[in-house]
Amino acid sequence: MQSSPLQRYLHRYTPAAPLATFRMAFGLLVLASVVRFWAKGWIAELYLKPKFFFAYYGFEWVRPLGPYTYGLFVFCGVCALLVTLGYWYRTAAAGLFVSFTYIELMDKSTYLNHYYFVSVVALLLLVLPAGRYFSLNAHLNPARWRSEVPRWTVDALRLLMGIVYCYAGLAKLNSDWLVHAMPLRIWLPAKNDLPIIGPLLDRVWVAYAFSWFGAFYDLTVPFFLLNRRTRLWAYVTVVVFHVLTAVLFPIGMFPYVMMVAALVFFPAEAHERFLARLRGWWNTTPAARPSMSLVYAPRTRQALLLVLGVFFVVQLLLPFRYLLYPHELFWTEEGYRFSWRVMLMEKMGQVQFKVVDSATGRARLVNNYEHLSVLQEKMMSTQPDMLVQFAHYLRDYYARRGVHNPKVYADAYVSLNGRLGKSFIDPTVDLARVTDDLRPKPWILPFDDEISGL
Amino acid sequence: MKKTALFALLLLFTAVGIFSCQKDSGVDPAGSDATVDRKALLTQWADSLVKPGYQRFNDKMAVLKTKTTAFTAAPTPATLLDARQAWQTAYLEWQKVELFEFGPAESVSLRNHFNIYPADAAGINRNIITGTYDFEVATAIPQQGFPALDYLLNGVAMGDAAIVQQYVASAGHRRYLTDVVAKMDQTFGTVYSQWNSSYRDTFINNAGTDASSSLSRVINAYSLYFERYLRAGKVGIPAGTMTGTPRPEKIEAYYLKGTLPLQLATTAHATVQSFFNGRAGRPSLKSYLDALGAKDSRSGQSLTSIVNTQFGVSAQQLSSLGPDLFTTITARNADAVASYNEMQKAVRLIKVDMTSALGITVTYVDNDGD
Question: What residues does the HTTM-like domain cover (chain A) (predicted)?
């Protein structure tokens, strides 16, 4: 076998501590997210009360489970806890991935990039050997204990973090963000009552500074985190940046998830010190034993590398799928999700649906709020795929109520990043007969403007 | 790292320099009276709109109470006319405060107690006969407030003489009329006194932009009022825009008819307009939006002038529905529908463009930017 640099890299080993701390921190954060979600009453509000849910294409079978939805959240929380403890690690990671992803797939209107991030990380943890060190598994079954893991298993997490930041940065390289400081120019003055920084937020130049720094930060921070000399400072900016976003925007747990996840860039010794301190709290002194590397059987190793390879190729390509669609991404949102596009748009809309009886020609207007939650209506108003889904629901709803072959039309009005609102979709197209799939939607009206950039 | 940081800063300031030079020509600098100051705006609303508005309405309510008491004490054609006149005046004044359904008004559901129509005449008659009713239950919503008074003062019998006779003959009618007014008085009284005590400060100090902030609540109430209770309630639903069939009997003040229904609608519309514009030199939505520099980035036109133009068109189309809205809805239905459509355009500017420019959040749920 030749020994190429890649081959040598794939045979390098590193302490397992970063994987262990990442596993614990991530598990705890997911657990906290679940508890927070429940405590805020969002399970009932988002998954029990609405009469209709916006399924993802191909996942129409994923539905809230009625009152059992609480059970789903309990299961998810328990899995997160088990992942933290490293007990039944592999099963718990699988359970965490499946249950969290199921929750996210129940309704599109709750889509958040950080939920997607959690799902993606849970999937990675499922294949990475994060349960072999500083875990209950290894404690109860010392034969499973490994203090060193292949280098690439830790680097996989770093690579994912790098992708998230870089793609979020690339997404900011557009004219609305850089040239017009939109949408920060709208969002920042809305926070001008904050102590100290408040008065600054009214200034236009501050919106520009935030926009440019944000793009620069996202594009470069993974590299500064990788570099030994810049790492500490880079991490300080990670904390400052995310604390700032937490103060300014209603983005929930995202800032904390990123702050904690970025710790994976620190070297093994730092993680080791941290774990030693934890051991100190528990008063457990580990039996001094020689370090032991996790050596995969060649087949297993190949399979894992193949899975990771495919995973990262998908991660790298998926955000660019929008190129397959002909029109402005921010307007049509075709290929917008799952691409690390965060905080890029101030988009708002209003839509009035009209249902027409094919036999009698009688028309009636729909009160959206009778069918949808505030959040659902807000999200639907600006997203064409959701408009079709709701139109299909209305078609079936009115057909059950005796309307013959209902035709459904939508008069939608949408404003994007400070542009005056305009008609969003063709009001003469019968959405009841439009198929809901991934093809470009020709009935989305032109944007009549241009946002240049990526 | 030092070099990189320096470079980044340099890049930043160059960029800021370039863009601020570009922008300064387009954006008018915020003047002394045009600041993005939410507390000043909320203070103006509380002290110059809500409290004085409620005070004027309170006066009209007092007259209404006196006149209806006089009528039930001695039902004659003259006392009936007095009571009806007081009802009309108070109803018109109500149009100027109905949009303040936030804070105390929201927590007691003031509108539900004052102006949900069409009145449930059958239910009212049942209540009069049984003599037992609870104005707090959901079914009683259309059995009270101004619409119930409309029925009680104009619709319980044909002609004034017969109406007077009804009240002379029936203690139940006298009692129900008294109770309806008393309930209005009592419900409004709690709202009014809260504004005059602690709520005013609570209101102006909640100066953020999240979903529970005063601004968010006000804008929510304002656009909801315009969309649902003015556009749909006063014109759309009677004109049949929701169902395809005109339903003129669903207009406001249906039992009186005549010029009042349209007068109520135009008063409401004028209120919506003047709430937006405020007084010159004082904080208002208009001055706030101008201070933000809100404009259509496609055309460069200011959002407030776009809104005001549409308000004008919409007000004109609405006033063309006179003199008698009931007749117009059947005789010139297309005009009523056109009025609804013009209001709809204004609703969108308020609900979408204005709300978006204000940067307020409408839900409590996490959001990472649409």
Answer: 11-270
Query: What are the pLDDT digits (tens) for A98-144?
Result: 999 999 999 999 999 999 999 999 999 999 999 999 999 998 998 99
Q: A12 CA to chain B: closest CA distance, Å?
A: 29
Residue of B nearest to A354 (CA): B242
Asked if A212 lies within 8 A of B11 by C-beta distance, the reply is: yes
As a whole number of angstroms, the distance between CA B108 and CA B194 comes to 11
Min distance B342 CA to chain A CA atoms (Å) = 14
| Average pLDDT of the segment spanning A287-298 | 84
Class of domain B33-206: mainly alpha
3-state secondary structure (DSSP) of residue B322:
coil
Contact B16 A212 (CB under 8 A): yes
- DSSP states of B33-99: S----HHHHHHHIIIIIIHHHHHHHHHHHHHHHHHHHHHHHS--HHHHHHHHHHHHHHHHHHTTTTT
DSSP A356: E
> Does the pLDDT of residue A354 top 90, yes or no?
yes
The maximal CA–CA distance of chain A, rounded, in angstroms, is 84
Shortest CA distance from A361: residue in chain B = B244
State the Cα–Cα distance between residues B45 and A202, nearest whole angstrom: 22
Query: Is pLDDT at B13 greater than 80 in this prediction?
Result: no
Q: pLDDT value at position A285?
A: 64
CB contact under 8 A, A350 and B347: yes
- Between chain A and chain B, how many beta carbons pairs sit less than 8 Å apart? 157
Using CA of residue A436, residue A440, residue A443, residue A444, what is the dihedral sign?
positive
Distances from the Cα of A254 to the Cα of A19, A114, A153, A257, angstroms = 20, 6, 24, 5
Task: Give the span between the Cα atoms of A266 and A296, in whole angstroms.
Answer: 25
Task: Kindly give, in sequence order, each residue whose CB lies less than 8 Å from that of residue A377, ignoring residues fewer than 6 positions away.
Answer: A368, A369
How confident is the model at residue B370, as a pLDDT? 52
What is the end-to-end Cα distance of chain A in Å, rounded? 42
Q: What is the pLDDT of residue B163?
A: 97
In chain B, residues 7-26 whose CB comes closer than 8 Å to chain A: 8, 11-12, 15-16, 19-20, 23
Q: What pTM does this model have?
A: 0.89
Note whether B357 and B364 are within 8 A (CB): no
Rounded CA-CA distance A107/A376 in Å is 9
Question: pLDDT at position B32, please?
Answer: 36
Tokens of B288: 């706030």
Check residues A216 and B31 and name the one with the higher pLDDT. A216
Report residue A241's pLDDT band, with 50, 70 and 90 as the boundaries: very high
Cα A404 from Cα A25, distance rounded (Å): 56
Give the pair of three-digit tokens for residue A447.
């944007």
Is A418 an 8 Å CB contact of chain B?
yes
The answer, yes or no, to whether residue B343 has pLDDT greater than 90, is yes
ipTM: 0.89
Give residues 211 to 250 of B whose Cβ lies within 8 Å of A.
Answer: 236, 241-245
| pLDDT given at position A2 | 60
- Residue ranges per structural domain of chain B: 33-206, 208-370
In A182-221, the residues whose Cβ lies within 8 Å of chain B are 182-183, 186-187, 189-193, 202, 204-205, 208-209, 212-213, 216, 220
- For A372-378, what is the mean pLDDT? 93
